[in-house]
Amino acid sequence: MEKLIYTSITIVMVLALALTLFVSLPTQSAESESDALEAVVLKKGSSGSTVRTVQTKLKNWGYYQGNIDGIYGSKTVEAVKYFQRRNGLTADGIVGAKTAAAMGITLSSGGGGYNSSDTYLLARAVYGEARGEPYLGQVAVAAVILNRVKSSKFPNSISGVIYQAGAFTCVSDGQINLTPNDTAMQAAKDALSSWDPTNGCLYYYNPRTATSAWIWSRQVRLVIGEHNFCV
Amino acid sequence: MYKKTIISLVVVCFLLTMIVLGVSIAFGITNRQANAENERISNDLENVYKRNYYELSYELSNAGDSLNKLLVTASPSLQQKLLTDFSDETASAVICLSILTDTSSNGEKTVAFINKAGDYAKSLNYKLALGKALSNEDKDNLTSIYNAIISINQSLSEISDKIEDNYKFLDVLNTENDLVVGFLNNIEVDIKYPSLIYDGPFSDALEEKKPSLTGNELDAEKALQEAKSYMPMECELEKCAENSGDIPTYVFVTKNLESPYYVSVAKNGGWLVSITSNITSDENNCSEEEAVKVANDYLLRLGITDMEAVWVSDYNSIYFINFVYKQNDVLAYPDMIKIKVSAKDKAIVGVEALNYIYNHNERQLQEVKVSKEEAEKKVESIEVEAVRLAIIPSGGGSEQLCWEVAGKANEDYYFIYISAESGEEVEVFRVVDSEQGKLLI
């Protein structure tokens, strides 16, 4: 008898738990997508002015004994790890957002004529639109975005072009919010330094999935991977 | 015993009902909250579209007003003010339009016209600032721009009744019921936009670009041999694409390499257009000077002589070096080749020569009417570090000979260009984040 009661109660509890989970699940998955920023990190092999700043700070604070040469070598890695241990951070030797904040510096990536948030936005668009494509195809997608910025037919800024209503699928489906990898960052950097495999193309489409009759009417100039690039 | 069982069952059923009821109520409340939240978000979004629609009408109507006044005023200072207003209004209108619709398939001509009109106004403004007057041709152009803007505004007002009357942008965005798309498609048929040729980036004169370097057409096999000779190392290549643009090219890719190199070769003349790779470098064994030498030696091996390195920057231990052609001590900036050198193994990992192919030629150098000392004197606000002659592009496809005066003010680095013909200051560049790059003098 008691067994029956316990079984019933267990069933009820399981049911209740399942229902609660069912109700609360959608909110949880919505949250996990949003915290996808901060890909700019300094690590072994990095170089430039920000590395110089990191080295100067670490030297002044007594963590670093090497030269301030702007090159992130093994001595810098050791110094960063030392700094991280002393400041309660994960000692991985990489300067990411938290370590940078603890040092009081901002991380940025360079790009000719455009500011660092533009470079990062461009890399996110490349990653969202073309991460499975050959490297040349990724540079080409970044170049198309920049060609639109330069063209009178489109808005005159990188953000204006990328966020134009309905212009890119990765913006509509939210994939633009994924964190870009190093390859996408490099493709963005190359395109900003005027590498343009398309030589002036303003459009691209995937012939397997494109349905708009209009886009098929454009003159295709180049095919790389899954994309037709056209004017 | 039997009774007990019944009571227990009743208790269990009661408990079950209560829990299910409780959970459903909780679920219902969460659901209602979620619905209310969704409605709020969709209202917010709808409001963004509405706001941009009203803003578009407002800016375009003001743009019409500004031009209308401009056509009757003779005062250069008032003309300047109205031209400034007009270019601001067109810029805002383009932003609004791009939020309302994907102009890549609808209204491309209209956006282009509005952008060009604003850009043209800027060039006229600059002309007035130099003390020149608007010509009859300028006024004719302004009149045709004005007429086109009026037509756009008329079409826009035709859809405004419907939009003010419970129209929901969210429901129809980029569909055939989208009134903005309909409006754009209609005006593209109705209006003939004037063609504008002037000194600016959107000039119609720039639409047709022809390469300066050409030659006999090569077949893919010949081009492959050329491509191999351009590679920084011995390797196997295969054709992977062709570009049929202004500069038709063959694109080859390295075989059996984890990080491939892509080499693009011009079909006409076999010129090297670009080498692209995403080779990364995790060590820095190479100074800037060494990297520049590696790049310069590479150019010489290709038979490209008289190139001067003008700028170097490094990005994660890859050096980006800009070379420009130097003709009799004059730097020709339009003839630029960019080279990437890996700081790990001092190897060429990228080349970009599109601008060189478009622009490179032996120029008939203009006469220098302003002396170096005079040019230097014009620049008061920076600490001058170097002065040299340079040819720079001046928008609209033309070039001008200038004195390039480079120097520092506070912590920023500047390039100031003084026309070698008139002594006017024609361009100022500020080096963004000068720590990341270095001027080579």
Query: What is the name of the CATH class of the domain at 116-198 in chain A?
Result: Mainly Alpha
Average pLDDT, all residues of chain A: 80
Mean pLDDT of chain B: 89
End-to-end separation of chain A in angstroms reads 79 Å
- Tally the helices of chain A: 10
Unreliably modeled segments of chain A: 21-39, 109-113
Number of domains of chain B: 3
The CATH topology of the domain at 116-198 in chain A turns out to be: Arc Repressor Mutant, subunit A
Assembly of the depicted chains = heterodimer
SSE order of chain B = HHHHHHHEEEEHEEEEHHEEEEE
| Dominant shape of chain A | flat
Lateral strand order in the biggest sheet of chain A: 1-3-2
How does CATH name the architecture of the domain at 116-198 in chain A? Answer: Orthogonal Bundle
Strands, helices and their partners?
The complex is a heterodimer of chains A (231) and B (441).
Chain A: H1 2-34, H2 49-60, H3 74-86, H4 97-103, H5 116-130, H6 135-150, H7 158-162, H8 169-172, H9 182-192, E1 203-205, H10 213-216, E2 220-224, E3 227-230
Antiparallel strand pairs in A: 1-3, 2-3
Helix pairs in contact in A: 5-6, 5-9, 6-9
Chain B: H1 2-70, H2 76-100, H3 108-129, H4 136-164, H5 169-172, H6 179-190, H7 220-230, E1 237-243, E2 249-254, E3 261-266, E4 272-277, H8 288-301, E5 307-315, E6 318-327, E7 330-342, E8 347-352, H9 354-359, H10 372-378, E9 383-393, E10 399-409, E11 412-419, E12 425-430, E13 437-439
Parallel strand pairs in B: 7-9
Antiparallel strand pairs in B: 1-2, 2-3, 3-4, 4-8, 5-6, 5-13, 6-7, 7-8, 9-10, 10-11, 11-12
Q: Which labels suit this protein?
A:
heterodimer, A: 231 residues, mainly alpha, Muramoyl-pentapeptide Carboxypeptidase, domain 1, Arc Repressor Mutant, subunit A, flat, B: 441 residues, alpha+beta, 13-stranded mixed β-sheet, extended
